[in-house]
Write a structure and sequence with these properties.
This protein has 346 residues and is an alpha+beta fold. The chain folds into 3 domains: 158 residues, ATPase, nucleotide binding domain (Nucleotidyltransferase, domain 5, 2-Layer Sandwich), CATH 3.30.420; 88 residues, 2-Layer Sandwich (Nucleotidyltransferase, domain 5), CATH 3.30.420.40; 76 residues, ATPase, substrate binding domain, subdomain 4 (Actin, Chain A, domain 4, Alpha-Beta Complex). It contains 12 helices and 18 strands. It has a 5-stranded mixed sheet, with helices on both faces. It has a 5-stranded mixed sheet with strand order 13-12-11-17-18, with helices on both faces. The radius of gyration is 21 Å and the shape is flat. The structure holds adenosine-5'-triphosphate and magnesium ion. The site of magnesium ion has 7 residues, from loops.
Amino acid sequence: MGLFDFFTEDIAIDLGTANTLIIHNGKVVVDEPSIVATELKTGKVIAVGNKARQMQGKAHKGIETTRPLKDGVIADFAAAEQMIKEFIKSIPSLKNRFWTPALRMVICIPSGITEVEKRAVRDSAEIAGAKEVHLIHEPMAAAIGMSIEVREPKGNMIIDIGGGTTEIAVLSLGGIVKDKSIKVAGDNFTSDIEYFMRKNHNLVIGERSAEKIKINVGSALKDLRANDIEEPENWDVQGRDQASGKPKAVSISYQEIAGALDASIRQIEDAIMQALAMTPPELAADIYKNGIYLAGGGAMLRGLAARIKNKTDLPVYVGEDPLRAVVRGTDHVLRNIEEYDAVLMK
Ligand SMILES: Nc1ncnc2c1ncn2[C@@H]1O[C@H](COP(=O)(O)OP(=O)(O)OP(=O)(O)O)[C@@H](O)[C@H]1O
Ligand SMILES: [Mg+2]
């Protein structure tokens, strides 16, 4: 360990549309929604993460809650910088220091990101205190986080279904051979449910209620039992009646939600089929043997893995902790940075 190392702290960041995760010294120290609350009069950020989320949908006119990332990339630079800064400031082991350590960061970014967007991520990290910034593609990080040996001459297909984007990538020899990214993912499922409740039940609900419905009775399949998956019980949803304006409750079945999500899931299926069709034959043979790996919070939707398996006739595996696969992989790369030089972006 050189003197420089002594003053340098390493952090791995998964800056997601829905959630930001940070690992420092092998521990997840930040796992919070990517949300910022701003006081409109002064433009000051008053809360980030969980605290800002609690204000979502419940704030008065003087406070606005926003998501600085949209479709996997930074949409509001100032808010994103503030958010990263606040999250880094909140890391307990960095707080009680006599000096401000130099930060070395590995940040993962969507594979379809443009040069301008890459620059924006770098700049935000530097403003937040990074002296050295490395970038890694999300599906690569997800694969490493699921302990897939990405540097072998062997094809692997990874699908990361996040909040804003679904990224489908074929990896081999430490690089991305083919990738396809679509802006349909977990957050679309949530808005599909909001729309469905309004349209079919005249019930106006907020984003958080819609997400709860998705987690509790969401399904990618209309018949879970036929696929040996436990069926969730009906779920009571409270909201506002569109016509009368009165608060009311409706009971919802998973079959109804499966119907509401069908079109979005079909778009994901189509993208997977296109990615498979683009895959070079040698690698396709590997994928036939090894199957498809799913990561990202969207992969946790009930029946989704089974539906992709039915569609592709391939084995489909969901990582052990899909919400954290990307940040774990990012951290693994950070700790073995020389070894993984080839997978980092130049
Ligand atoms: N149990 C669950 N069932 C279904 N969806 C879930 C579940 N848990 C979380 N999600 C969804 O996963 C999504 C967030 O996943 P994740 O944290 O991987 O996204 P992200 O990395 O922030 O986004 P992106 O990679 O697109 O920038 C949200 O849409 C959330 O509602
Ligand atoms: Mg992600």
